[in-house]
Task: inverse folding
């Protein structure tokens, strides 16, 4: 047995006894707090704490019992890798890389200093010699106060194998450990109040850049910037430990946050933003990292690869989160100089680029087909392709998440839309995620114990989305499948959803289109205006108010649809004719009601607005009017007069005559009535009767036989 002295007491304790004493004497709530600080990505569900593994990633493989009254408190099993967890000591060893003496020091206020620590020979679980001031280290960083006096130092130790070579982590970077030394204490110890790094230069600067870790801070400092970091990294600073950190040097400073490229880094940056604002920082801006960078990419990586740091820090579009400070002159109207940036559209005049969009229609309208067609045209890159009544004007990559349509259905739709296999020649990439084939839907936004949050699965996928270059459109179909919160009646949930979508648009530069249902209406309810359609979009007003653009589709009533099909000389079918329009836009938009007719071969709603306008345009109408006038005049001269409505000689019944003008074929009674009214108003025709008792119903010209009382009928039973 070899004794390792900790102090000058005479009694001794074995390693196993020390572990047991820590587990028994440290308050269980303290242990739970330490567990959560060690694994900030973990989740609490009832009496279980779940995490991916002792490496700290989010997940559900490792489950730890946190019921203070349970005999299995702080024990659990990693069901993925088979690693067992047996108490807070094991957790700190695995999660933070601490040694037993360091853990003893950490909990010294609870277990006291009554006995020496004795390590049994040979140990069951070998414990390395504890790190102290005499242990060789690889780097050292000094934290100083405003006068330049050292408060504490942080030493970096590379983890090495038996040959002394650095051990690499799963990302190919050397594994490292950090220890803080305060005062003359021989073993690692955090200062009571944890300062910011580089305080003297912070106080002398107006703008400060926060990064993760002293190495990254010094990399920027060496380039002439003023950079700082928080002690201990993402695992140490949490909401529970925030009171131990001093952010007061940031008072009145403009702070820029540059987090590492991972979830832990983002969450830490969000907390630093909150704490800096509480310390009265003048402004806080969070950078959006460039897309396509690997996980854990940081400032040091950027500098080593020759990344343009200055341009990155001075490009306004890279800042996605900024606090509001009304005393900041950067909010003055004078900042708007030069030519305003052009608003780009993915569909000309209809769908702006880089904004959240709602596409709303009743069920079975064909929203999925419309969005698939739009996505294919954006990725195809072919000019002058029409969608939703306008030309597609932006080309790039698209991602579709469909919760209801499986691979087979999507294949059938694609085949109908692209019979010539143009998709194999697309300039860009269309990624289609049929969720029924990959385990089902995941929530983008969810309510957990009353708190609105994104899901871990979405966050993982979103990290991948951020790496897709030239992304133009993201589609969620239907919205209800991706939101596990009450957006239909809770305005806060609706606002949270649209706020999240706006954030995604800002960070990706793409539009996010959410396919959403309309409220069901009675069968006899007729929607005739965009305003009516907007009011029928399901959910609270916060959904429509929170997006930059909303487009609605509504089915025509049966009579109007039949008349429209007749005018277009096509077969009428139920659910074939729709109107659609932009019902909400925060900027310029084409608000004209568009006329859509379903293509019976593809199932796609096709814009027929121009065709219908052409049928009713001035030139066409003049031709129709002239044709009808000539026909009325000819029939009058030949003794076979026409009447406007009713009976065998009505305009619609006489369309079967050999001399009936082709241009009038298939026109509805409503259209014919309109032309007759115009001819009467213009004084070119009138209605006449053939007897004093008969009604005025026969159509004749103003200088014709009827006007002179000379008309003689030669055919038709009604000509009396």
Result:
């Amino acid at each position: 047995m070899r004794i390792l002295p900790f102090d000058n007491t005479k009694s001794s304790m074995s390693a196993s006894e020390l572990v047991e004493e820590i587990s028994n004497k440290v308050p269980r709530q303290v242990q739970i707090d330490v567990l959560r600080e060690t694994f900030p990505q973990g989740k609490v569900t009832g009496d279980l704490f779940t995490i991916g593994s002792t490496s700290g990633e989010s997940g559900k493989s490792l489950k730890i019992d946190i019921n203070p009254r349970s005999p299995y408190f702080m024990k659990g099993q990693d069901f993925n890798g088979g690693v067992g967890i047996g108490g807070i000591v094991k957790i700190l060893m695995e999660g933070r890389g601490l040694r037993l003496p360091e853990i003893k020091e950490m909990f010294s206020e609870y277990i006291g200093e009554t006995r020496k620590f004795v390590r049994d020979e040979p140990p069951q679980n070998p414990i390395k010699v504890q790190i102290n001031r005499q242990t060789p280290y690889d780097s050292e960083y000094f934290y100083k106060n405003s006068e330049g006096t050292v408060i504490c130092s942080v030493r970096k130790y590379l983890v090495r194998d038996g040959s002394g070579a650095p051990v690499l982590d799963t990302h190919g970077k050397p594994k490292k450990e950090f220890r803080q030394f305060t005062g003359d204490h021989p073993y690692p110890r955090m200062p009571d109040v944890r300062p910011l790094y580089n305080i003297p230069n912070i106080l002398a600067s107006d703008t400060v850049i926060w990064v993760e870790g002293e190495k990254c801070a010094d990399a920027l400092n060496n380039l002439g910037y003023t950079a700082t970091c928080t002690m201990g990294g993402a695992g140490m600073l949490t909401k529970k430990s925030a009171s131990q950190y001093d952010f007061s040097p940031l008072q009145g400073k403009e702070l820029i946050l540059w987090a590492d490229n991972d979830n832990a880094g983002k969450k830490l940056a969000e907390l630093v933003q909150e704490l800096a604002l509480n310390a009265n920082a003048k402004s806080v801006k969070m950078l959006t990292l460039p897309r396509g960078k690997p996980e854990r990419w940081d400032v040091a990586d950027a500098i080593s690869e020759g990344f343009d740091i200055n341009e990155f820090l001075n490009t306004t579009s890279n800042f996605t989160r900024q606090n509001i400070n009304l005393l900041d002159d950067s909010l003055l109207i004078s900042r708007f100089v030069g030519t305003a940036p052009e608003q780009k559209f993915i569909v000309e005049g209809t769908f702006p680029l880089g904004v959240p969009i709602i596409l709303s229609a009743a069920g079975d309208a064909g929203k999925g087909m419309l969005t698939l067609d739009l996505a294919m045209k954006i990725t195809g890159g072919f000019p002058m392709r029409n969608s939703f009544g306008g030309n597609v004007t932006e080309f790039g990559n698209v991602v579709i998440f469909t919760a209801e349509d499986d691979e087979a259905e999507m294949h059938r739709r694609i085949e109908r839309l692209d019979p010539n296999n143009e998709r194999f020649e697309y300039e860009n990439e269309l990624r289609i995620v049929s969720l029924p084939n990959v385990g089902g839907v995941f929530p983008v936004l969810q309510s957990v114990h009353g708190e609105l949050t994104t899901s871990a699965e979405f966050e993982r996928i979103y990290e991948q989305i951020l790496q897709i270059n030239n992304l133009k459109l993201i589609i969620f179909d239907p919205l209800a499948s991706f939101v596990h919160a009450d957006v239909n009646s809770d305005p806060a949930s609706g606002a949270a959803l649209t706020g999240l979508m706006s954030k995604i648009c800002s960070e990706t530069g793409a539009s996010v289109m959410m396919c959403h249902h309309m409220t069901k209406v009675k069968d006899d309810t007729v929607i005739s205006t965009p305003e009516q359609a907007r009011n029928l979009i399901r959910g609270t007003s916060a959904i429509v108010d929170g997006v930059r653009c909303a487009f609605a589709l509504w089915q025509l009533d049966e009579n109007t649809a039949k008349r429209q099909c007749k005018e277009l000389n096509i077969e009428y079918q139920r659910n074939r004719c729709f109107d659609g329009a932009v019902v909400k836009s925060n900027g310029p938009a084409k608000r004209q009601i568009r006329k859509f007719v379903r293509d019976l071969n593809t199932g796609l709603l096709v814009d027929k607005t121009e065709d219908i306008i052409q049928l009713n345009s001035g030139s066409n109408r003049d031709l129709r009017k002239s044709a009808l006038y000539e026909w009325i005049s000819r029939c009058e001269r030949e003794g076979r007069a026409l009447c406007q409505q009713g009976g065998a000689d009505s305009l619609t019944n006489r369309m079967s005559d050999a001399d009936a003008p082709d241009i009038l074929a298939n026109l509805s009674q409503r259209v014919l009535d309109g032309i007759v009214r115009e001819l009467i108003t213009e004084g070119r025709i009138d209605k006449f009767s053939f007897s004093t008792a008969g009604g005025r119903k026969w159509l004749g010209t103003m200088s014709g036989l009827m006007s002179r009382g000379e008309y003689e009928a030669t055919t038709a039973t009604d000509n009396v």
Remarks:
- The chain has a mean pLDDT of 85.
